[in-house]
Amino acid sequence: MYCFRKVTDDLYWVGGSDRRLELFENIFPIPNGVSYNSYLLMDEKTVLFDTVDASIGRQFLENVEAVLGGRTLDYLVVNHMEPDHCSLIAELALRYPKMQIIGNAKTFPMIGQFYDMDLEDRKIIIKEGDTFSSGTHTLHFVMAPMVHWPEAMMTYDEADKVLFSADAFGTFGALGGTIFNDEIDFDRDWLDDARRYYTNIVGKYGVQVQNVLKKAAALDIRYICSLHGPVWRSNLDYIIGKYNIWSTYEPEVHGVMIAYASMYGNTENAANVLAVKLADAGVKNMVVHDISRTHVSQLISDSFKYSHLVLASPTYNGGVYPVMANYLDDMKALNVQNRTVAVLGNGTWAPMSAKLMEAKIGEMKNMTILTENFAMKSSLKDSQMEEMDVLAARLAKEILGNE
Ligand code: FEO
Prior knowledge:
The protein has 13 helices and 23 strands. The chain is α/β, with parallel strands linked by helices. The strands form 5 sheets. The protein has a 7-stranded mixed β-sheet with strand order 1-2-7-8-9-10-11, with helices on one face. Strands 17, 18, 19, 20, 21, 22 and 23 form a 7-stranded mixed β-sheet that branches. The protein starts with a strand and ends with a helix. MU-OXO-diiron binds at residues 80, 82, 84-85, 148-149, 167, 227-228.
């Protein structure tokens, strides 16, 4: 049975949510599920903006058919060709044989890569600045390369001032009937998922996100219709502001994430000692993660969130403990930068992890490292407490001084 919602007088949300999927992209845990949004414009011509993931294909097709109400689908705009949005293109092409597909020069080669169907005579290739009229609506096309794939683009509907933003402004999380930002408490219930989505999916491409935000600033936008998560129809500055912070790699919160790896609890103890000293000094914006039990996507998200990072790890096989090494690799791959970092190392006979971690962090852009080979031998000792006190005082001063 169909299950859609009206966005404006003639625009409908026809997407759906998946609450069964464990791992988005087969990597990222999504305990709150994920939505795949698609929008259908019922103008003189009917225009669908993107399709959905195959997992919700049946619901989507029923929604589209119900909203069409016996009309045919004239156009499909493909803003993004990743399979979580393009999986139903072939099915739609079969169901609506006259449907034409609107995309840019990079869209169609990808359609050919994913599908063997001959869609050659159904292509409408547009470029930056082109317009398309569906009757009473004029659509403008805004290229958004690498937000999140090279072919990504956005479509702006001049009549109702709707920005179809592709992955941008999206978030993990299933939609439960309430699809508008003013029907939910986004800051309380969605922001962590939104940050984890942005930082892990698009975090690497801050420069490209900034380029698109500049283009968007020139548009009068009343609705943001992303491919994941709620439709924004109020308080747009809030989510645009978050994107601005994340894409410029500025910390969202003056505070500290302490992320430790620990085999037998000794490195964990050092992390706890530091955390207590920071709390005694008045630091409240603080989170402590055992990284063996925290998915790396959460560590990346908090690396974007907090101004200060403390990383603690034992030495393992002469290198850095594997989960910490993986996190450091991900930090570099996702362009984490502009943070102040302290490193605590441990090792029983040849403690190497502190030096190696500092070297890896040194490869990242604009990182300030507060420590210099703070290395424990098996466990934290009284002789190292003075150094720990100095570190805690410096961290607290910087964090509290900027709150
Ligand atoms: Fe939601 Fe880049 O796909």
